[in-house]
Amino acid sequence: MSKPRHMSRRGAFTLVELLVVIGIIAVLISILLPAMQKARRQSQAVQCMSNLHQIGLGLLMYADQYNGQLFPDGEGWGPTQVYLTSANDGSLVSQNAYDTQDGQTGQFVSVLVLKSPDKWQQYTYNVWPLYVFNVWNPPFMTCPSEDPGNPPNARHTYILNEHMIYANEKYGRPLPNHMSPSDAVLMGEKLSVVGDYYMEYGDFSTKVDCYRHGASVGSNYLMLDMHVDTKIITSSNSESSLDPWDFGNGTGPTTQSSD
Fold first, then answer.
1. Within 13 A of 40's CA, how many CA atoms are on the CB side?
2. Radius of gyration (Cα) for the chain, nearest Å?
3. What are the angstrom distances between the C-alpha of 193 and each of 121, 155, 210?
4. How far is CA 143 from CA 9, 33, 51, 97, 233, in A?
5. Which residues are 254's β-sheet partners?
């Protein structure tokens, strides 16, 4: 006995119904995906702030041992140390790079660096994280927003304000121009292609990443009072009375309010 005709016609979706369902799914994805990406960026920015807090604690312990000086001077990643032929060679440090400490001084690190496609060479050099943390670059020296498949040059994200050394500024000492420690940058975020650890005179436009966490957000900064602030700081030719990197001498960047 055959089934009624109207019962046998509802066994599957029609082409129009299928297209409607696919369209609804596509609309939902287009709505949810930006929100998910934004949440991911916010999570990375928060983890980055946590990294800077940890670095700040280490710098405070260093300052306690060295009469208020927050970090060692002249212990960066320079051409006499690891760069071989170009400023980006530091990014070729092996994932299997290893640390070794001198049994007497504990003040050097040995790293394997790719010199040619089939040859590795071992280099020994000093960098400031070794003096402060007793390891080359601890995990919290890298922002989670970095691409894991393309690590930042010299395996770190953050860059110190060398103007602290130039001005002989120490933790707890009053700043020029009655500047508050909460407005003075101790450390910022560097461009991934840059290997240096220090932001010196004239370096801002070539070393500092102003928009690490988005064009409307800016970057994270460890301030001299050890709080972490998220803001947009851009280079400017105009003089500023309160320059967060340069302590108001009118040669560096100025603060720009975020959108």
1. 9
2. 25
3. 21, 10, 14
4. 58, 23, 7, 19, 18
5. 234
44: left (phi over 0), alpha (psi -120 to 50) or beta: alpha
Residue in 225, 34, 71 with CA at minimum distance from that of residue 162:
71
Q: Would you give per-residue pLDDT tens digits along the chain (259 residues)?
A: 555 555 555 566 687 778 888 888 888 877 777 766 777 778 889 999 999 999 999 999 999 999 999 999 888 865 444 443 344 444 444 333 434 444 333 444 555 554 555 555 555 566 899 889 988 789 999 999 998 878 888 889 999 999 888 888 899 888 887 888 998 999 999 999 888 899 988 888 889 999 999 898 999 999 999 999 999 988 764 334 457 888 756 566 766 644 3
Q: Pick from 4, 24, 21: which is nearest to 12 by CA?
A: 21
Residue 47 to residue 4: CA distance in whole angstroms: 64
C-alpha to C-alpha distances, 2 to 6, 147, 150, 249, nearest whole angstrom: 12, 63, 66, 94
CA 82 to chain centre: 20
Tokens 């050099």 locate to: 125
Distances (CA, A) of 44 to 112, 139, 157, 207: 29, 14, 13, 21
